[in-house]
Design goal:
This protein has a single domain, classed as Alpha-Beta Complex (Spore Coat Polysaccharide Biosynthesis Protein SpsA, Chain A), CATH 3.90.550. The protein has 9 helices and 13 strands.
């Protein structure tokens, strides 16, 4: 199993902090935001490599960060894009890394700007318990306006996803999906079909929304704190929580 960390966005909502610096490397709790995720991934025996995908503007920042990191299995990939108009999108970046790194393996995919309080080892264990089926991370979100900013999953009693909408105006459940996914290699082999159908290459939640109509997808529901950092307000909030 290998991991792909999505960090190729331009984080325009966090300007001027991210005008010349990548969001995933902003400090939270006295260290780069991305370190919180990478240290959890490094602790998992199942993860043989961690691939961080960046845009061309910030690739140098990530390469310098990786070079000085104690975790030695980090590989940085420059997707060659330089602005929001040319970006590949999250799913486009997944496809890019799979090809450039020659990955033919199960893949855990995470967003570099999410801080997840969960035990990722338990998330991986769930993947194997259900027979290597796609797993997504979900959490109950009571506030409707907040929920509308997430992908929203509907599940049956077994936890199988039976419906999924990306940022719906009228959510059909209260399960918001965070950007942590574990895909068997067989599911990722369907990416050419996804792109051939003209589907959106951006927003990583679009892939499980499409996939659950073709293969089994399950939700790992947590009540542990999870944060999606996209605004100055959310950044300030997590910095307070993490003591910075």
């Amino acid at each position: 199993m290998q991991a792909i960390v999505l960090a190729a966005g331009y984080a325009t909502r966090l300007f001027p902090l991210t005008r010349d610096f990548p969001k995933a490397l902003l400090s939270v709790g006295g260290k780069p935001m991305l370190d919180h995720l990478v240290e959890k991934l490094d602790a998992l025996e199942e993860i043989s490599a961690i691939h961080v995908v960046s845009n061309h503007r910030f690739a140098g920042h990530f390469e310098a960060w990786a070079k000085g990191h104690r975790v030695r299995k980090i590989h940085v990939h420059d997707d060659g894009t330089s602005d929001d108009q040319t970006k590949l999108g999250a799913i486009g970046d997944i496809d890019f890394v799979l090809k450039v790194a020659g990955i033919d393996d199960d893949v855990l995919i995470a967003a570099g700007d999410n801080l997840l309080g969960i035990d990722i080892g338990a998330f991986v264990s769930r993947f194997y318990e259900i027979g290597r089926k796609t797993v997504i991370l979900a959490q109950k979100i009571a506030d409707l306006e907040t929920l509308r900013r997430f992908g929203v999953a509907q599940t049956d009693e077994s936890g199988k996803v039976i419906g999924f909408e990306e940022k719906p105006l009228n959510p059909k459940s209260d399960l918001g999906a965070f950007a942590l996914y574990l895909y068997p290699k067989e599911a990722l082999a369907l990416l050419p079909e996804y792109f051939a159908g003209g589907n959106n290459p951006d927003a990583p939640g679009n892939l499980p929304a499409w996939l659950q109509k073709r293969a089994e997808v399950y939700a790992f529901v947590t009540d542990q704190p999870c944060f999606d950092i996209g605004t100055h307000e959310s950044l300030r909030a997590v910095r307070e929580i993490y003591g910075e």
